[in-house]
Amino acid sequence: PQFDYLDTIYNRASRTKLAELDILYKKVAKIALGVPNTESSLNVYRDMKWLPLHLRRQLHLSNYMYRIINDNCPSNFMSRFTYVSGGSRNSESCNLYINRSGSNKNFYYLGAKCWNIIPPNLRDLSDVSTFSNAYKAKLLSSAITDPNYMTNNSYDYFYNAA
To answer: How far apart are the C-alpha atoms of 86 and 100, rounded to whole Å?
Structure first.
């Protein structure tokens, strides 16, 4: 829980600082399972049903976005997001328009970018708990089975578990 506290805010920290947190998180997981430090982190995460730290941050931002899109938040949040319109593929998927900003660390930019990679079948789930559990399972399964999976602590990188 301490790693989750304000993670949608601190996820905009430098890659170096996020990598330091990631190392600590891996050590905590390995100590909790009582496995050697040389054990693969993905195996540990699989056994504990934990997401890698950058995917936890992605899941939490996705949960906030789910609440915003489904009007389960203050109305001024939703007014900051607009759907892509027109005949593009993005409009058919109900993707959000990603505003250009001076800083790509803006919540509205990151939130829209994160929402747009969520598979459409998950976006339509009935409540935030169901959505969160299904998306967590998809992210974990994808990370474990993807031979090209790598931790990426860039604040604006979102893992596509398609």
So the answer is: 19
